[in-house]
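#struct-help
A.M.: can someone run this one for me? Single chain, 95 residues.
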Amino acid sequence: MNKKTYILAIDTTQPETGIGLLVNNQSVIKTWVSQHNQSDELLPNIDKLLKKQGIEPTQLNSVAVNLGPGSFTGLRVGISVANAFGYGLQIPVIG
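D.P.: on it. Structure tokens below:
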């Protein structure tokens, strides 16, 4: 039985914020134009994406995050959220 691989991708470097989910090389992407409050928008959008795909956070194998260049605050938000997932779930953070 093949185990599925789930990778969460986060890009908060630009006003058009993006998150993605890679499931065995098939991608599901969600983007939105941030209203300068990525810190308020990012986690709820990740939650919606995972729920829509029927995936629990504990099923994630790794998290990828864009390291820039881009907005300093946006980078901090994306990296912090990625590191929180990595630390909390004990999975690798790529970026």
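A.M.: thanks! The first strand starts at residue 6 and ends at 11.
D.P.: also worth noting: The beta strands are 6-11, 16-23, 26-33, 62-65, 93-94.
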